[in-house]
Amino acid sequence: MSRASQLQQEMGLGPAWLPRDGWFERHPAQMQRQEMRAAAANAAEEIASPSVAAAAAAVNDSPSLDAAAVAGHATEPAAHPTPLPDAPIAETRIKLPRLEWPQLQREVADCQRCRLCETRTQTVFGRGNPQARWMLIGEAPGENEDKQGQPFVGRAGQLLDNMLAAAGLDREQDVYIANVLKCRPPGNRNPAPDEIAACNGYLLQQIHHIQPTLIVALGRFAAQTLLETADSIGRLRGKTHRYQGVPLVVSYHPAYLLRNQPDKAKAWQDLLLARKVFRQAAN
Ligand code: SF4
Description:
Blueprint: H1 3-10, H2 28-47, H3 52-60, H4 67-70, H5 101-109, E1 127-128, E2 134-138, H6 143-148, H7 154-166, E3 175-179, H8 193-210, E4 214-218, H9 220-227, H10 233-236, E5 241-243, E6 246-251, H11 254-259, H12 264-282
Parallel strand pairs: 2-3, 2-4, 4-6
Antiparallel strand pairs: 1-3, 5-6
Helix pairs in contact: 1-7, 2-3
The structure holds iron/sulfur cluster (SF4).
């Protein structure tokens, strides 16, 4: 039995889904693009003035790469549907100066913009590949995340890893995972509006840097916050939304799925929709 089939069985799903030949294969154009991105980032660091994002934009605009040729792979930095590198961040609720990735990480680590800094153990910035084409966004760190400084750890994180692996996605390479809030609300209470407003600029900057081809909002809170709606997750699932110009698909939070096993099958359907939307957006 294949690895994907085993993972689906562990999730209580079936029948086995197998990725199409070629869909997740590495493409030579991907390798070329990664090399150019690295070179551009190094050049940007050396001359200090242009941002890494601007250097990446130059790579994105490079006529030597055929966007269609690199589309379709989960790890491929295929052409983004919108020119995010130079696009304004439209709805920063509390404006932050544009920061480079390491500065952004330091800013979050030291942040005292809301009361959650008083009760957190540490901030949880995010995890994964900042050049990934998939970005997963959850609500806020829980108890384990607060202790470990990583998003989606413990059983919920393991379930998420299994689902991603079954879809052919590696958690460390193919996705970047972050939360709306970077600090744990005490007692895992719902985040307050002023906390969301204070923290929103960090998430927007993460999206700006990563330039994901697809965003998956995990859980009701993340979906409602990003889409600024009170609609139920049942109404938000199964559709393609947009956030910051990026296609967004809604699914359940893995912690919810641990308590509601029958909805794992729906989450799997969401993942299949996400894969389809990704392919369309990358082409
Ligand atoms: S939740 Fe966000 S805004 Fe509030 S202290 Fe943490 S990092 Fe800062």
